[in-house]
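Why does residue order matter? Because the sequence determines the fold. Keep that principle in mind as you read this record.
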Amino acid sequence: MKTDQILKWVATGILIVGSLVNSLGYYPAGPMILGLGAIVWLIVSIMWKEMSLIVTNLIFAVITSIGLIIYYLNG
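Structure:
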């Protein structure tokens, strides 16, 4: 199996777990896990040179990061 195929399934699994954790109300764990999934998918998107996925996952990762930074700064 190729590296990109492994990573895409790992990222998908991370997003599924992140969605579950988020839906159960575990903050900030949910967004952290979802952000990790977005970063792994971003890596796959770059490997594939697929601009629509790069933009989607980059924005997802940035928005998640900004939200977590604001959360921790407001302590």
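Residues 3-73 form one domain.
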